[in-house]
Amino acid sequence: MNEQQMKKISKFISLVLRHKPEIINLNLDENGWAIVDELITKSKRDSHQGFTFEELEEIVETNDKKRFIFNEDKTKIRANQGHSIDIDLALKPQQPPEFLYHGTAQANLDSILEKGIEKRSRQHVHLSQDKETATKVGMRHGKPIILIIKTQEMFDDGIEFYLSENNVWLTDFVDAKYISM
User: Fold this and answer.
1) What is the pTM of this model?
2) Is the dihedral of CA 136, 32, 39, 24 positive or negative?
3) How many CB atoms neighbour CB 158 within 10 A?
4) Domain contains 121
5) Is the confidence at residue 175, as pLDDT, over 70?
6) What is the Cα 25 distance to its own chain's centre?
7) Which of 17, 60, 66, 180 would give a disulfide with 79, using CB separation of 3.0 to 4.6 Å?
C-alpha cells in the first residue's frame, strides 16, 4: 500500500473511531474500543475502504501522530483522543509540566485571547509538550501561532489534566488568564 492510500485509510479510520462510527454501522464500547474484525469487515462492505489486518497494523504502527492503539492481543482498536462522540477513555488525572503549548491559526488568536481555548465539539482541549508539535497543529489551520499555557498554575488552581496514550495533554478548557505568547 502506498503512502497516499495509507493516509486515506487512516483519515477514514479516524473519522469512524473518533466521530462517526454509524457511517459503517460500527459498534464502539463505552471506552471507544471497536472489534478489529468488525472494523475491517464493515469498512470494506459499507464504505468500500477495504484494508487488511496487516495494513491496519501498519497504519497504527507508522502513524506519526499515534492516533490509534490496539488492545494487548490486537483484537480491539480505538482512537487515542480527539473524539467528538461521548467516550470515556478512562484516563487518570495527572500533574502536567509547568508549561504546555497550543498551536492555532492567526485567525483564531483574538477570540482565544478573549474567551480562552474551548474544546468545542471535542471532548477535550489538546495541548502539546513541545513547540514543534504545536506548530504542526497550528499549520493545519493557516499561519501558525504558538501559545504558551501556564499549566502548573492551572493545576494549582484545581484544573485537571490527562495524558493520552500518544502523549497529548488534555483538559476541559483553558481560561485566557493562563495563556501567553
Assistant:
1) 0.73
2) negative
3) 6
4) yes
5) yes
6) 22
7) 17
